[in-house]
Write a structure and sequence with these properties.
By secondary structure, the chain is of the alpha/beta class. It contains twelve helices and 19 strands. The N and C termini lie far apart (55 Å).
C-alpha cells in the first residue's frame, strides 16, 4: 500500500459486484453470506459501501481492464477522506494476482475463486497490510461457508467446479483447478434449506456440470433433488457434449421437475476448428447427441455457445458454424469473438484472425442466432405452460417469469405474486420474450411444466 493511498473506511457495509458467468453470481452470493455473518450490511451501490468486492471473470477479453477501471474509481477518497476496502476476487485475481498487486496499490485483498471462504479472515489481515490468498486448497471452500440467506423464487447451486478438458482457448483449468464434485448429501441438504426459504427452482452449476460425480451421477442427483417437497423446477448448466450420457437424457423424459431446456455449447460448427480447440467432439457427434435428445424429449429447447475468429478459422469454417445454427434452430445462444487468454495454447497459435474479420463474422452469426431465437419463441404461441413469476414488469400490474423453456414471459394476473407458479397461455412472441395471459379461470399450479 502506498503512502498516498487514503485509508479504507471502517467496515460496516458491503457491496459485491459480479462479472461473468452464473458460477460467479453464486460465488458472489456466498461472499455476501460470509460478510453478513460478520455483521456487515449489504448496500445496493459501491459508493455506499465500506467493503467493495469485485468478483472477476477471466473468460472474455477486457476482463482485467474492467477491474482496473473500477479500482480507479473506488480508490478516490470520499468526503471523509477515506475510501472503501477494495477486494479483487475471482478468476482474474487468481490468474493475475501478482500483476494486480504491482499495478493497483489501492487493492487491499486479492483472493481466488477457491479461497474466498477466507474472506473475513483476509479482511482482518488487510487492516495492517494487503492480504493475498490465491491458493487452491485441498479442503473444499464449501465446508467453511455459512448457511445461505436467500429470498428469491430461483437460486443457483454449485455442484461441480473446475475442468479437466483443457480446451485450447480456455483458462478455467488454470483458475478453477481440476474437476471436483461436492458430495450429494451436502447438495441435497443445501437444496432443502433453499426450499425452506421459499425457493421453487434450483439451477445446478458447474464448469462441466454433467461430469458431476459426487457419489451420484448428475442424473442421479437430479432424481434425488426431485424428491424434495416444494422444489418445483430443476435446471443445470453448463454441460459438455462429451458427458451427455444416456442416463441424463433419460432424466429429461422421466423427471417431471427437470425443465425441457439444455445449454450445450458447441463453440464451432467446423470439425477442423473443434479439433484445434481440443473440444473432444466433432460436428457430427454433437448433432448426433442433439438427435438423441430430441428423440427423447421433442419439446426440448436448446442453447449453445459459439466462438468466432479462432486462430486459423477460414470463411468455410465460419460457414459451417452458420449452417449448424440454422440446422439446430437454437432457442438462444451466446456468441463471442475469440480473445487471447495468456497462458492458453491458442494464445501462441499461428494464423490469428484480424479483428475486422472477427467483427464481421460475429455480426452475421448474431443475426442468424436472433432469427432462430425469434422463430423458437413464435413456435411456442398457443402453448399452455406454467410460468414461475420472478420480478415486476415495466408496466403497472405486469409480472415477468420464466417458462419451462427459459423464455422471459410477461403476464398480468390480478392477485398473483412473485414466487407463484401460474398457468398461462402464450399468445405473442418477440425476439427476447413472450407474452402470456392467464388460463381462464386463473390458476396457480405446482406442476413444473
Amino acid at each position: 500500500m502506498t503512502s498516498q493511498s487514503p485509508a479504507p473506511a471502517p467496515a460496516k457495509t458491503y457491496h459485491v459486484k459480479s462479472f461473468g458467468c452464473q458460477m460467479n453470481v453464486y460465488d458472489s452470493e456466498r461472499m455476501g453470506d460470509l460478510l453478513s455473518a460478520e455483521g456487515l450490511t449489504s448496500v445496493a451501490t459501491p459508493e455506499a459501501a465500506d467493503v467493495v468486492v469485485l468478483n472477476t471473470c477471466h473468460i472474455r477479453e477486457k476482463a482485467a481492464e474492467k477491474l482496473y477501471s473500477d479500482i480507479g474509481r473506488l480508490r478516490q477518497p470520499r468526503a471523509d477522506g477515506r475510501r472503501p476496502t477494495i477486494v479483487a476476487a475471482g478468476c482474474v485475481a487468481q490468474a493475475e494476482g501478482a500483476e494486480i498487486a504491482a499495478r493497483a496499490p489501492a487493492v487491499d485483498v486479492i483472493v481466488g475463486p477457491l479461497a474466498y471462504h477466507r474472506l473475513p479472515e483476509l479482511l482482518k489481515q488487510a487492516q495492517t497490510g494487503r492480504a493475498v490468498d490465491i491458493d487452491m486448497p485441498l479442503v473444499p471452500k464449501f465446508d467453511s461457508l455459512p448457511q445461505r440467506r436467500i429470498a428469491q423464487a430461483s437460486a443457483f447451486l454449485t455442484v461441480q467446479e473446475g475442468c479437466d478438458k483443457f480446451c485450447t482457448f480456455c483458462v478455467v483449468p488454470y483458475t478453477r483447478g481440476p474437476e471436483t464434485s461436492r458430495p450429494a448429501a451436502d447438495l441435497i441438504g443445501e437444496a432443502q434449506a433453499l426450499v425452506a426459504c421459499g425457493v421453487k427452482e434450483i439451477t445446478l452449476l458447474g464448469q462441466n456440470v454433467n461430469a458431476y460425480a459426487g457419489g451420484l451421477s448428475l442424473a442421479g442427483l437430479i432424481r434425488a433433488l426431485a424428491d424434495i417437497d416444494g422444489l418445483e423446477r430443476i435446471r443445470y448448466t453448463t454441460s459438455h457434449p462429451r458427458d451427455m450420457h444416456d442416463d441424463l437424457i433419460a432424466a429429461h423424459v422421466e423427471v417431471a421437475k427437470l425443465m425441457p431446456y439444455l445449454h450445450l455449447p458447441v463453440q464451432s460448427g467446423s470439425s477442423r476448428m473443434l479439433k484445434a480447440m481440443n473440444r473432444a467432439h466433432t460436428r457430427e457427434s454433437y448433432l448426433a447427441t442433439l438427435e438423441r435428445l430430441r428423440a427423447a424429449r421433442p419439446d426440448i429447447a436448446l442453447s449453445g455457445d459459439f466462438i468466432v475468429g479462432f486462430p486459423g478459422e477460414t470463411e468455410a469454417d465460419f460457414e459451417d458454424t452458420l449452417s449448424i445454427v440454422r440446422q439446430v434452430q437454437y432457442a438462444a445462444a451466446y456468441s463471442f469473438k475469440y480473445s487471447i487468454r495468456p497462458g492458453t495454447p491458442a494464445a501462441t497459435m499461428a494464423d490469428q484472425v484480424p479483428e475486422a474479420v472477427k467483427d464481421e463474422r460475429l455480426a452475421r452469426l448474431q443475426a442468424a442466432i436472433a432469427e432462430a431465437s425469434l422463430a423458437f419463441n413464435r413456435s411456442t404461441i398457443g402453448r399452455r405452460c406454467t410460468v414461475l413469476l420472478e420480478r415486476p414488469g415495466r408496466k403497472p400490474g405486469q409480472l415477468i417469469g420464466k417458462t419451462p423453456w427459459l423464455q422471459s414471459a410477461v403476464v398480468s394476473i390480478p392477485g398473483a405474486a412473485i414466487g407463484d407458479l401460474v398457468a398461462v397461455n402464450i399468445v405473442g412472441a418477440g425476439p427476447n420474450s413472450v407474452e402470456a395471459v392467464p388460463v381462464s379461470p386463473p390458476a396457480r399450479e405446482s406442476a413444473a411444466a
